[in-house]
Amino acid sequence: GVAPLLFVAASRPVAGFYAGVASDTERAFLAPLLPAGTVVTVNPQLVTDAFLAGCSAGPVFACGPSPMLRVLANRYRGGPVWVSLEERMACGEGLCKGCPVRRRDGSVALVCSDGPVFPEGEVSWTWQV
Which Pfam families match (predicted)? Predict the structure, then answer.
């Protein structure tokens, strides 16, 4: 989940960078890759708890499981929030239609060819098509 965000952090100044990992081993592996000052949480603490406590405004770029993205989208609804969706992609080109996400306007986008990054306002968060 963190890979797409590393490019964002390298291309613009960031006020905070938060990463959630499953173990201390993962934390040790990721540490050299993450920007200075990164807040890393190890399960069972949710990274959303640390993020919501430490971030008040500004553009939000997030990647991770859909429940986490849903929490962030609800908290910052209408703000500049961009989500990178983690869907399984069989072909990666939109041919198989195996990675659908429902948009708020009722249309369907394909994560592989229309995304994987979407403004939070486009995603319905009930995307099982």
Answer: DHODB_Fe-S_bind (PF10418)
Q: Which residues of 85-105 are buried (b: 16+ CB within 10 A; e: fewer)?
A: bbeebeeeeeeeeebbbbbee
- Residue 15 half-sphere exposure, CB side, CA atoms within 13 Å? 9
Between the alpha carbon of residue 128 and those of residues 16, 81, 103, the distances in Å are 32, 21, 11
Residue 44 pLDDT grade (very low, low, confident, very high; cuts 50, 70, 90): low
Average of pLDDT values for 47-51? 80
Q: Looking at beta carbons, which pairs linking 56-60 to residues 24 or more positions away fall under 8 Å? A: 58/15
Is the Cβ–Cβ distance between 1 and 117 less than 8 Å?
no
Count up the domains in the chain and report the number: 1
User: What pLDDT does 113 receive?
Assistant: 94
